[in-house]
Amino acid sequence: MEKHAEFKKIATTLRKNIIKMLNESGSGHPGGSLSACEIVTALYFKEMRIDPKQPKWEDRDRFVLSKGHAAPVLYAALAEKGYFAKEELMKLRKTGQMLQGHPDMKGTPGVDMTTGSLGQGLAAANGMALAAKLSNKDYRVYALLGDGEVQEGMIWEAAMFAAHYKLDNLTVFLDNNGLQIDGENKEVMNIEPIDKKWEAFGWNVIKIDGHNFEEIFEALDKARETKGKPTIIIAKTVKGKGVSFMENKVGWHGSAPNDEETEKALAELGGEM
Amino acid sequence: MSKKMATRDAYGEALKELGKINKDVVVLDADLSKSTRTNWFKEEFPDRFINVGIAEQNLIGTAAGLAAAGKIPFASSFAMFATGRAYEIIRNSVAYPKLNVKIAATHAGITVGEDGATHQSVEDLSLMRTIPNMVVINPADGVEAKAAVLEAAKYYGPVYIRLGRSKVPVIFNEDDYKFEIGKGIMLEDGTDATIIATGVMVSAALEARKKLEEEGIKVRVINIHTIKPIDKDIIIKAAQDTGAIVTAEEHSIIGGLGSAVSEVLVENYPVVVERIGIKDTFGESGNGDELLAKYGLTSENIVEAVKKVLARKRG
Fold this sequence. Notes:
CATH superfamily of the largest domain in chain B: Thiamin diphosphate (ThDP)-binding fold, Pyr/PP domains
Structural class of chain B: alpha/beta
Shape of chain A: globular
CATH superfamily of chain A: Thiamin diphosphate (ThDP)-binding fold, Pyr/PP domains
Number of domains of chain B: 2
CATH architecture of chain A: 3-Layer(aba) Sandwich
Helix content of chain A: 25-40%
Largest sheet of chain B: 7 strands, mixed
Oligomer: heterodimer
Number of strands of chain A: 7
CATH topology of the largest domain in chain B: Rossmann fold
Strand content of chain B: 15-25%
């Protein structure tokens, strides 16, 4: 059997559900959801200590989707994991339904933090990680940042904080797909050298291919073993990954596929489930 | 009313007490712990004190995460920065998910004095009041401030507590004072008009009442310590009984107590209203008491407003 075949299969399922739910909702963010499928799969289906039957379990690991617009990938993973019924996915963004355009911890089982306004998730993850230390609990906290998002000043306030308080129970992924709404990061507002910035802020920095499970798992192992500092895994990814006509296309940041595009995308992903 | 105490000092004392009775209480500050008095908590509970440095957005964002993990964070800075700089984080990361974060901000209002307009927050009540799920408290003296802080810790959800830098007269007696969120307090009764005051203006309102009494005018005085949820009943009753209202606050007349009271009245029992407050302008450097006089926030200004509202009432 192919290595990590099981996880690759889950990532593909998440991709299909992302496409289907966005087609159904008629709006939302496919690009940055598709780029994070392997990362979210690795966290929810291997790394994290969680129990879908007890979404508020005190000792669970936490995940903060700081790039909240990638909510579809989180919802797809939570549904796949059994936090709520998969039918809910097809009611995304509809009036009176549970799944909001951006994650809502009060309304959705399994969502650990309300996010959507960029730049705020890392501080919240810090607070959770610090709470674990204060209470002598061994849970870990994970966060996923967008690469455009690190243009927010608050990210660097939080970056300083996590290193200062030696939050080694915190692991952050940077979904480094290189694109944001107005274009490429390097054109809109250059974030490079992004690894050196985090290093200078006192973080353990690991660079990987964000679509390679072997590298993701290895990085997560290293993060767990690293003491005295937080870890950021800078994951090189492809925005729109898995759907050829969406890959590396700025236009697919925040628009939903129509029926024809959906059919094409699902066919590329191996057809209907 | 000879004793004076700053509400920030009462906050510092309340935190020390809270630290003993509730191990989940943690205190955050943004490099102003000596001024906000959170360093009093730090001295006794260093492990539960978190300095975030000069970073108010991170102050609130970190507090949100601590609350999401079961802690009861008290986040402090000056009112200007806690509510202004961090406004959107308060809205989206604290109030929307209804997290158990207490924002206790000192140096509110124009009585900050010498630091000038950049540090004089006269919009904070307005900013906090418009956010759903937010409880907004503005204590009148040290006794009330301490009681409010202890009560806020028992209540689950976001609370904003507005505190001052300067010493203000102690109005209440600690032994028999009871604080209830959302409940106004009638301090003196009267029939001609009602002064509804909040924060440092409550003692000015009591002084104004004495002066008016000498002229044969009897006014009711109500202390509104909770701006939101506001005590509608006590306001409507005052309108029904006295037919004229004067509001008094050390805050902009836009969006604070004067607005909140007016909203209750127009929807329930419209009567003539005069509002004492900062009149849509920035402050300046100067002595706190002198600034109160310059910007129309004294007991004399309240007396004038009562006379004006009475003239309007008679039509």
